[in-house]
Amino acid sequence: MAWVETESLSFTARHEEDDEESAQRTLDALEDLRLRLEDRFDEAPGDITVVVHPTPAWLAAAHPFLPAARLATAPAGRRYLAGWAMARELHVLNDDYLDRRAAGEDSLAALRGTAERLYAQIVIGANNPSLPPPWGPRRFLRYLRWAWLVEGASQYFAGQVPLFRAAVQTRMRTGKPPAFPPTARDGVILGGTIFALLERHRGPDACQLLASRVRREGAERAIEIAFGATVREVEEEWRRYLREDVPRAGSPDQLEELHW
Prior knowledge:
Layout: E1 3-7, E2 11-16, H1 20-38, E3 48-53, H2 56-60, H3 65-72, H4 75-78, E4 83-85, E5 89-93, H5 95-101, H6 105-112, H7 114-127, H8 137-145, H9 147-157, H10 165-173, H11 184-202, H12 204-212, H13 219-227, H14 231-245
Parallel strand pairs: 2-3, 3-5
Antiparallel strand pairs: 1-2, 4-5
């Protein structure tokens, strides 16, 4: 089947003819997000190409670090690694395959918003040179160390943190308590909760500050500076927040399934 292009003001989508609706929906959402991020960041790149892949195999072949990132992520978070951001390109699955991965309404909305999270990641990387994209072995290792920040900031600035509530609740019901800050294994699911908590206590500017710099002293020091509190105090509040304040997304049978 032939590949075609669909254009908007700031983005171009490359896709198969059958995916024109997916492409147009994605471009419209990206244009809206870029307008919002232009007010928050010094740089919000345009002239970005969105490649809509017709199968997961095509997506996996788009960049060698995507399969590696999936292996480093817990099974609960892998469904949301449905695309990959490069410096000037976004690679995403078409709506058909995104919909197949969904585990409920919020999960579906989060998956349909994959391109927006990836564009937020491009913006964050453009304003924080320490973070990818672009990619390389060292930057990928840095991504693994700071996955909670990359994924969490992408969720936050794309306005999608609430869409992960059910996934957070499921994570808290299974396995060992998460590390703080979350490891790469939990970064996709729990990263956004740190930014939601930070906005509650210190406001949006503190979230932008946290996303703007990778500190040599490490993640704990970055969190202390952003929150204006010791890492122990922040951890205690974060665990209370996960336990008590994260709204449950519907009844227990609507939480994401435990088997992936």
